[in-house]
Structures are given as C-alpha cells and as structure tokens.
C-alpha cells in the first residue's frame, strides 16, 4: 500500500526528513519561498519542528517571508558560506545534533562550500539533502559531497534524486548519519512510497 502524504518540496525532501530524522529540528540553507517548493515548511508549520533558514536574496524573497504569519522560526538574510552556524544553533536554543539539513543554493559549488561550512562548524545531522544540479552541468559536486561527508560520518541514503516526473533531471543526493538505520536506495524506488 502506498502512502498518500502531502509534501511541499520539489522531490519529497520534507517526507524524507520526516521519515528518517530522530530530532525535530532543521537548518535550511537556501530558503527561497517560505512555502512553495520549500523543504522545511511542513516540518515547521505542520509538525512543530524548531529550526532556522538562511537566504541571501532579500530582494526576491524577503517581502514574501515578512508578509506571512505561518512561519515563526527565524530566517537569516545572510551568506551561507560565511555564516556562523554554531552561533545560530546556540541563539535558537538548538542542539548541535540537528534532525535535517536542507542544502540548496546556487551554483552547486556554493552549495558544497556551504555544506562544508556547516559541518566544520561542528553541527551534525540525522539526514541531509544536498543539491548538486548534475543535470545542468554534469559536474562532480555529487562525488565531492559523497567523499566529504564520508569523512565526517555520513553515507548516501537516496541516490539519483530527480525532479518529480523528470527522471533525466538528476539534481540531488540524500545522506544519513552513519548511526541512522537506513538502507541505500535509488530515488525512483523511494519515490514509489510517496506518490500522491
């Protein structure tokens, strides 16, 4: 029997976090819109998770975030590559063990650098979704993330993540901490559980 779960994210990242994370907390690197295609909206609004978001593009998104009342967790209008994650975790009353990291800024090189920064700031995660946008440039950011995270206690959970109904558009890899019980799976198989 297939689960008929509502998700707001592009490929079910929110449902991955809800099904895997032990801690009900998140850090969202690349907040974008507060709701549409947002990986953390249902975590905060529908499930009461604590966390914070980071977004550099104030011109495009700040008014949208500030004109809504559904989301009350903090958003920082800052550069994710130089951001002080350890300080923000402390300021938001969170543990350094966080349930979910959504890592998605542009371009993929910046996403990798932001990933490295948050991990080297001493924050650990139950699960991570990392956007490498392989379909755009056939780059090796997926492999660089796999190698970096393996050195820091993570493994691939879901391979070859693509935008719904576009299998050629590989754009993410999902990870879990080594102490999380999850068998590596291809996204096409994982997604079957979460079809509408």
Descriptive key words:
about 200 residues; alpha/beta; Rossmann fold; 8-stranded mixed β-sheet; disordered N terminus
Commentary on this structure:
This protein has 196 residues and is an alpha/beta fold. The protein has a single domain, classed as Rossmann fold, CATH 3.40.50. The protein is 32% helix and 24% strand. The protein has helices at residues 13-20, 41-46, 58-66, 85-91, 108-120, 134-137, 141-151, 187-191; strands spanning 25-29, 50-54, 74-76, 97-103, 124-131, 154-162, 170-177, 185-186. It has an eight-stranded mixed β-sheet, with helices on both faces. Strand 6 (154-162) and strand 7 form a beta hairpin.
Question: Which percent range fits the helix content?
Answer: 25-40%
Overall pLDDT metric: 91
- Spans of at least 5 consecutive residues with low confidence: 1-5
CATH class: Alpha Beta
CATH topology: Rossmann fold
Our count of domains comes out at: 1
**Helix-strand sequence:** HEHEHEHEHEHHEEEH
CA(first)-CA(last) distance: 12 Å
Number of helices: 8
Shape assignment: globular
The largest sheet, given as strand count, sense and whether it forms a barrel, is:
8 strands, mixed
**SS-derived structural category:** alpha/beta
| Rg of Cα set | 15 Å
Report the β-strand fraction as a percent range. Answer: 15-25%
Give the number of DSSP strands.
Answer: 8
Q: Strand order of the main beta sheet, please?
A: 3-2-1-4-5-7-6-8
* CATH architectural grouping: 3-Layer(aba) Sandwich
